[in-house]
Design a protein that fits this description.
four-stranded antiparallel β-sheet; globular; alpha+beta; TPM_dom; membrane; TPM domain-containing protein; 11 helices; Diaminopimelate Epimerase, Chain A, domain 1
């Protein structure tokens, strides 16, 4: 359904939150420090033994030293992202691992990825891998997800643990794979496809937040398998236009945008888009799932305020500040018509892991007028009175 990987769908997944970087630094520090501590303990044990100290003292100390010395090299369980064929760049694999670790911390979901070649029957492989490694068994029973991609068979499967079957039903999993993930795979953006799909998984998990789903650990085969469409190429964009009356207001343009998303119209040349937005979207991936999500978001986001620049050439529409998942929308007047400026929004509006929007104040440019007097915290999130 599109062209390049949609940064809008992916940018909201990795926010660079301070907690993530602290966790990563802590992991690196532990790997470096633990062997040093072990070496120190071993040296102390040898000195004590040389001075004639009894075994009851230096024996356990020496054993602890050996354990610490060897700990970085003890066998570990499967990685969060196991790429057996080198399909992902190192940076992409790290991005996925970082975000999936945060998914576990925020929602208690153990999400793993295996990319391989000639894995055999994908359904059986997924169930066996799930059970063999006890995915989802470390916290709440059965709260595991396993994405398996076989590049030789060109197939993908998302396996769902027992504890999540009520949240991620087969129809939802098939929708994520067909309408989001494989749209990116088709244009060679595997990592972006996985990340964009995880965004839908997070949204679905949040709808069930707090629900108790008792179940046995492991997986019984819930999920969906389908063609991965690797390298298939982009499909042609929609050519349908939107009809909008002369003299349409920014409110009218936003309503037309919502209708276009409801109709899954991915035409990058829609008359409601500004010049910079059309240029940006010409090389963009816009998946059916993204358009469905946008339509739902717009339906649930009322406009509370309209702010106009001093030269009357730009407008910002704002939802109530308390509606933290309803971002501001930017409009620019080109000729005699108002156009939606998604390109300007992409520069200035960011989203946290919980999909709350924040501002990059330095990137607001000509839209700064819309946020004068708005209280922001240190990270650019509006402060709710």
């Amino acid at each position: 359904m599109g062209r390049r990987a949609d940064g809008a769908a992916v940018a909201g997944l990795l926010r660079g939150e301070p907690r993530r970087h602290r966790a990563l630094r802590g992991g690196v520090l532990a790997v470096a420090v633990v062997p040093v501590v072990g070496a120190g303990l071993l040296l102390l044990a040898l000195l004590l033994a040389g001075r004639g100290w009894r075994l009851a003292w230096w024996g356990p100390l020496g054993l602890a030293a050996l354990v610490l010395l060897g700990s970085p090299w003890w066998p570990r369980g499967p990685e969060l992202v196991e790429d057996r064929v080198g399909l992902l760049a190192d940076a992409e694999r790290e991005r996925l691992s970082d975000y999936h670790a945060l998914l576990g911390a925020d929602h208690g979901i153990d999400y793993r990825v295996v990319i391989g070649r000639e894995l055999g029957d994908l359904d059986r492989f997924a169930v066996d891998h799930f059970r063999r490694h006890g995915l989802g068994a470390g916290g709440d029973a059965g709260r595991g997800l396993l994405l398996v991609l076989d590049v030789a068979a060109n197939e993908v499967r998302l396996e769902v643990g027992h504890g999540l079957e009520a949240v991620f039903v087969d129809a939802f999993v098939a929708y994520v794979e067909a309408r989001q993930m494989t749209e990116f795979f088709a244009v060679g953006r595997v990592a972006d496809g996985i990340l964009a799909s995880t965004e839908l998984i997070v949204a679905q998990a949040e709808t069930a937040e707090g629900e108790v789903l008792p179940a046995l650990a492991g997986s019984g085969g819930a999920g969906a398998r389908m063609p991965a469409r690797l390298g298939e190429g982009a499909t042609a964009a929609d050519e349908a236009q939107v009809v909008i009356a002369d003299g349409a207001t920014p409110h009218d343009v936003l309503a037309a945008y919502r209708r276009a998303m409801q109709q899954r119209n991915d035409n990058p040349e829609l008359a409601i888009y500004g010049r910079e937005t059309r240029r940006m979207l010409a090389d963009w991936v816009m998946t059916p799932a993204q358009m469905d999500n946008m339509a739902r978001s717009l339906a649930g986001c009322p406009v509370a305020r309209e702010l106009t620049a001093a030269d009357a050439r730009r407008v910002v529409l704002l939802a109530p500040v308390a509606e933290r998942r309803c971002p501001p929308y930017f409009f620019v007047r080109e000729g005699e018509a108002w156009r939606l400026d998604l390109a300007g929004m992409m520069q200035a509006v960011r989203f946290g892991r919980d999909n709350r929007w924040r501002l990059e104040v330095g990137a607001l440019g000509p839209y700064g007028f819309g946020f004068e007097g708005m209280a922001l915290d240190a990270n650019g999130y509006p402060v709710v009175p």
